[in-house]
């Protein structure tokens, strides 16, 4: 996914594009900005059982086609034949939200990056507690995040 909106313009050749909504992130087994499920056509459901819940959107692009890929949408692009594609990214959030060195929308917005760092520190701090306490307080943290940060239409 990218944090910027994107037009994928197919100049020549043909591509298949598989997309997943940001709301399906809990089912995509994320590692950084990528899914651990590398083969979306033949996933290992024993290893990735939640992937079954992810809603797949698929299309084919041929020469002259343009696909709008919204920010945060996960996408898997497979070239069906040799071709040329062009991506055009643009920022739709205020410029201070983006990392100044991020040309292609691959870095998290600065506020999200800071929040992840704070979360990592909080989780490291919880390691000082015995397991049952760590589990209890981690679950409380998850509930607070759901309560305070989740959009009501994403639950």
Automatic annotation (TrEMBL):
Protein name: TYW5 protein
SUPFAM superfamilies referenced in this protein's UniProt entry, alphabetically: Clavaminate synthase-like
Domain of life: Eukaryota
GO biological process: one example: wybutosine biosynthetic process
JmjC domain boundaries: 1-107
One Gene Ontology molecular-function label: tRNA binding
PROSITE patterns (UniProt xref): JMJC
Source species: Nothoprocta ornata
């Amino acid at each position: 996914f990218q944090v910027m909106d994107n037009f994928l313009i197919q100049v020549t050749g043909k591509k298949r594009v598989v997309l997943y909504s940001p709301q399906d992130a809990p089912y995509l087994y994320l590692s950084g900005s990528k899914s651990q499920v590398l083969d979306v056509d033949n996933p290992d459901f024993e290893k990735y059982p939640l992937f079954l819940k992810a809603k797949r959107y698929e299309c084919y692009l041929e020469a002259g086609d343009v696909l709008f890929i919204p920010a945060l949408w996960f996408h898997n692009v497979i070239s069906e034949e040799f071709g040329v594609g062009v991506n055009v990214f643009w920022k739709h959030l205020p410029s201070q939200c983006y990392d100044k060195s991020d040309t292609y929308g691959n870095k998290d917005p600065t506020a999200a990056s800071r929040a992840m760092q704070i979360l990592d520190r909080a989780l490291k701090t919880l390691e000082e507690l015995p397991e049952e306490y760590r589990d209890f307080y981690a679950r409380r943290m998850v509930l607070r995040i759901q309560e305070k940060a989740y959009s009501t239409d994403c639950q």
